[in-house]
TrEMBL record:
SUPFAM superfamilies: GHMP Kinase, C-terminal domain, Ribosomal protein S5 domain 2-like. The record marks R27 as: Transition state stabilizer. Substrate binds at E33, H34, T35, D36, Y224. It is found in: Cytoplasm. The lineage of its organism: Bacteria, Bacillati, Bacillota, Bacilli, Lactobacillales. This is Galactokinase.
Amino acid sequence: MNKEELLTAYQDTFGEKGKDVFFSPGRINVIGEHTDYNGGHVFPAAISLGVYGVYGPRTDKKVRLFSGNVDGEIVEFDLDDATVEQGDRFWTNYLKGMLTYLKEKYNQIDHGFNLYIKANLPSGSGLSSSAAIEMLMGIILKDEFNLDVTRPELARMGQRTENEFVGLNSGIMDQFACIMGKKDSAIFLDCNTMEYEYKPLKLGDYEIIIMSTNKEHTLADSAYNDRVAECGAALKKLQTKLDIKALGEIDEDTFDEYSYLINDETELKRARHAVFENQRTIRATQAMEDHDLAKLGRLINASHVSLHYDYEVTGKELDTLAESSWAQPSVLGARMIGGGFGGSAIAIVKKSEAENFKKNVGQIYRDKIGYDASFYDAEIVDGTKRI
């Protein structure tokens, strides 16, 4: 989508010229799934698919929002209205939560605005469309109202929007990846300390291909929050003997020695995934730095296995994508990404074999699932910005 098309769409919607155009990327996560809310490490990167926004100031206190992806009307509310929207207006909560929390802290937000948004990121694809929208709103308000707020602070506010406004007990990874992204790099982030470093995504003759199941997942359902609660219950039991604040603080050996404290099959599996996936992420990041891509691939595969058997968040569609990818000779590794239960997976594929890979995996998926998967080449880009 180019700037002119977006400005035209804004003008057609609101009957006036738009002022500024912004872009907020979605994200993939190379490895480190369901570790962020467990105080572990993640290794995400911002991608070229995302959400665009066109902003125009108003002189009154009205906020008017329109999505080019939703068959609906302009959603209008007062600048001071902090009620949670329901039904077909639910998508506006990701914007409204950010606005509400920034207004609490900064009194410069003193007039309304129009906002047209359009995503080329498939909704429900597990590529963090909600975090992209939150960070879009964060950067628009920071820029247009000259707010003295840092990008990591906006990421935290996005997490608060998910947790308190929307009601999903998610971690910090998605928002952090969307707003802190850096071209051709992934972010090695310790979600316990918020320390991070950029690592160049050097994959040589290989590239990352995103595979969408085209089965929507809504994370704000019970299954995601159940996993958070199960890990929390396991942590509490470990804390009776260990001085820890998060599962991400312990390694496999420590977990093994103290696992008898958990004494519940489900909680044991959930905690084991959180601990082992965190250690896998640390090792995988090191493998990439050592240019040991074969090892990186094996760890990515192991991540999917753990998400399938211990965390139980994969499902038939994601398993079909991962397992059929493993069977291709051009693939180093593949796994589901995001919350699970649908959404997307990634594969690290030899560039010269990318088209064959898409054809082969696409055929297996169609035969087994009954409809098509979608494939996207992942370009790694900078975080949320004005364009």
